[in-house]
UniProtKB/TrEMBL annotation:
InterPro entries according to UniProt: Aa-tRNA-synt_II (IPR004364), aa-tRNA-synth_II (IPR006195), aa-tRNA-synth_II/BPL/LPL (IPR045864), Asn-tRNA-ligase (IPR004522), Asp/Asn-tRNA-synth_IIb (IPR002312), NA-bd_OB-fold (IPR012340), NA-bd_OB_tRNA (IPR004365)
Stretch forming the signal peptide: none
NCBIfam families registered for this protein in UniProt: asnS (TIGR00457), PRK03932.1 (NF003037)
Gene designation: NARS2
The protein's name in its UniProt record: asparagine--tRNA ligase
Keyword presence, Thylakoid: no
PROSITE patterns in the record: AA_TRNA_LIGASE_II
CDD domains: AsxRS_core, EcAsnRS_like_N
GO BP field: asparaginyl-tRNA aminoacylation
UniProt-listed Pfam families: tRNA-synt_2, tRNA_anti-codon
Similarity comment: family membership: Belongs to the class-II aminoacyl-tRNA synthetase family.
PANTHER family membership: ASPARAGINE--TRNA LIGASE, MITOCHONDRIAL-RELATED, ASPARTYL/LYSYL-TRNA SYNTHETASE
Domain Aminoacyl-transfer RNA synthetases class-II family profile: 141-449
Organism per entry: Oreochromis niloticus (Nile tilapia)
Length: 459
């Protein structure tokens, strides 16, 4: 055969795939077949050498029976041979090699990963350029890919339109000042010109652009990279992370938003459980033992910020940060609340108005004055989603912007309230934190292919 084929295992069946088709294994039996991949194990037994060759499409490797002992762990190979049914239950087929071409040799002495050794996530993180060659990280990347696909499916199935919001923007949506400024470089820009004529930044959130679109689309979403110049080395902060953001028009209740958040979480998690059985098993058994993904499929709880503060103040825990009305909930508070509620995801609603950005809708509930905002807190991570109803009333919004001195900067945003404004709301979910939560991964740097954080931009 002239083409290169990949082997795909599904249940007890093995399929050979080329670029365009998926055919049953039986039609390939006894024919010469070429496979490519990387050697994941080498075992000599009597006159034979048994290799496990993996091409990254799944955790499963194909057993290759060879006669040469010169093949090393980590090498890239192209093997031509005859596929035959394997006598072993676990692997439906094996490849009796007729010819092995070493495409790229791997020196096992210098290679940081050793055959038959299980390396922890912290160890493999030291090798960002090589870590996808480990089982743990390649499983993570496949799960990440499936979860991404599931989130797109969820929105598509539920009538949302995907919008590509810009990476470069002139607004600071969250108003927290954690921005990376964008400036041109190179000989053409040596005179320090202002390329965009206004200060431009990497986006911290696509929300305001989604709000523009939600003036014409009742359901819209975006899923892309966002950037925050947070000087944090914490286990849940990155300078570049992926955010899933949705905006829903004609909604007047936080319940509508929390329902979408919960449904999307459940849909994506069930999809990962159904489509990444072996990869999830690997995590459960060896990477984050004791963590069970299924546990995150129960109903979510809802409490108000007022109730959250009462729980924190009644507790005997000694918190480092204050727990008075009006104080922001810190990681220690979020983790305590989740534990107190039985280690299940918890929505906290109706935060003090002054804690939330200018766009959050005023509940007008004197004397406390809260905003129709919601955070979703989850086990192991704390805050996973932040959302709110948006202030759609022109008079209230312009008063708040004026107070903040932002009326001119956001005149276009006020226009949205002038021309066919509707009650609307939305939320953002931190995708890496979602993966941390479902897989029980302690450090956010271990769930993204190339982590960026303060003092680190490797590769
Ligand atoms: O709560 P945040 O700041 O909400 C917004 O940006 C809204 N404008 C979203 C919207 O309503 N469309 O961020 C949303 C989520 C957080 O709950 C958290 O999970 C994640 O983004 N996040 C981070 N993840 C990793 N590293 C960081 N530095 C993060 N900052 C926020």
């Amino acid at each position: 055969v002239s083409s290169v084929y990949w082997l795909v295992f599904s249940g007890n069946c093995a399929y050979l795939c080329d670029q365009t088709c998926r055919r049953n294994f039986s039609s390939f039996a006894a024919k010469l077949t070429t496979m490519v991949g990387w050697v994941r194990s080498v075992r000599a037994q009597k006159a034979n050498v048994f290799l496990h060759v993996n091409d990254g499409s799944s955790l499963q490797s194909l057993q290759v029976i060879a006669s040469s002992e010169l093949l090393t762990f980590g090498s890239a190979v192209e093997v031509t041979g005859i596929l035959k049914k394997s006598p072993h239950q676990k692997q439906p087929v094996e490849l009796d090699a007729k010819q092995i071409n070493v495409v790229g040799e791997c020196n096992p002495v210098d290679f940081p990963f050793k055959i038959k050794e299980r390396h922890g996530l912290e160890y493999i993180r030291q090798f960002p350029h090589l870590r996808c060659r480990t089982n743990a990280f390649s499983s993570l990347l496949r799960i990440r890919s499936e979860a991404t696909a599931a989130i797109h499916s969820y929105f598509k199935d539920n009538g949302f339109v995907e919008i590509n919001t810009p990476i470069i923007t002139s607004n600071d949506c969250e108003g927290a000042g954690e921005l990376f400024q964008v400036e041109p470089s190179g000989p053409d820009h040596a005179d320090g010109e202002n390329f965009f004529s206004v200060p431009a930044y990497l986006t911290v959130s696509g929300q305001l652009h989604l709000e523009v679109v939600s003036g014409a689309f009742s359901k819209a979403y975006t899923f892309g990279p966002t950037f925050r110049a947070e000087n944090s080395q914490s286990r849940r902060h990155l300078a570049e992370f992926y955010m899933v953001e949705a905006e829903i028009s004609f909604t007047q209740s936080l319940e509508d938003l929390t329902k979408v958040m919960e449904d999307m979480f459940r849909f994506a998690t069930e999809h990962v459980l159904a489509h990444c059985v072996e990869d999830v098993d690997l995590f459960h058994k060896h990477v984050t033992p004791g963590h069970r993904l299924k546990e995150y499929l129960m109903s979510f709880l809802r409490i108000t910020y007022r109730e959250a503060i009462d729980i924190l103040r009644r507790s005997s825990e000694r918190f480092a940060f204050p727990t008075d009305w009006g104080c922001d909930l810190k990681t220690e508070h979020e983790k305590y609340l989740v534990k107190h509620c039985g280690n299940i995801p918890v929505f906290v609603t109706d935060y003090p108005y002054d804690l939330k950005p200018f766009y959050a809708r005023d509940n007008q509930d004197h004397p406390e004055r809260t905003a129709a905002a919601v955070d979703l807190l989850v086990p192991g991570v704390g805050e996973l989603c932040g959302g709110s109803l948006r202030e759609e009333r022109l008079n209230l919004l312009s008063a708040r912007l004026e107070e903040a001195g932002l009326e001119d900067v956001y005149s276009w945003y006020l226009d949205l309230r002038r021309f066919g404004s509707v009650p609307h709301g939305g939320f953002g979910l931190g995708f890496e934190r979602y993966l941390q939560c479902i897989l029980g991964v302690d450090n956010i740097k271990d769930v993204i292919p190339f982590p960026r954080f303060s003092h680190s931009c490797l590769l």
